[in-house]
Amino acid sequence: MKQLISAIFFSMTLLLSGCATTPGDEQVEYLTYVKAGQMVPVTQFTDTQGNKIDLEESSNAKLLVLFATWCPDSQRAMKALEASDLNLDPNVDIIAIGREDNKQALDKFASEYEINFPLIADAKRAIYAKFANAGIPRLILLDANNTIVKTIIAEGEDPLAEVQW
């Protein structure tokens, strides 16, 4: 019985710890490597459809979404984003970067969640590592000049609550 209680406690701890790390990793402190006022550290991407994206070619505000397909908080944030007015705003470019996800996982996710904005595969965390060490989903708001306006860890029931330029 004691082992069962320990197993349940351990499982609940993992569930409540959010999506800080990949399943199986130990919990780590969230560190954010970028802050408001800095230029975004990455401006060029290739999405899962092979399209080249250069942030410097757009005069729109941008929303970078750092997420993982397996993370419940990320799933909630992506559903909220897909249903939001931001998704329809012609003055905001949305680009989602799948941390530790490959093209196949992202294509499946896009189909299931009806995502209509570009998804970028970041299977080895090369992009994510320029922004943070742990914690998803992360929303990075950029102005038209690609300056970081705000960074948000969007865990919880209302993941878009703090999104404002």
UniProtKB/TrEMBL annotation:
It is found in: Cell envelope. The keyword Signal applies. One of its GO terms (cellular component) is cell envelope. Its main location: other. Residues 34-165 form the Thioredoxin domain. One of its GO terms (molecular function) is oxidoreductase activity. It comes from the Bacteria. One of its GO terms (biological process) is cytochrome complex assembly. Keywords: Cytochrome c-type biogenesis, Disulfide bond, Redox-active center, Signal. The keyword Phosphoprotein does not apply. Residues 1-22 form the signal peptide. This is Thioredoxin domain-containing protein. It comes from Shewanella violacea (strain JCM 10179 / CIP 106290 / LMG 19151 / DSS12).
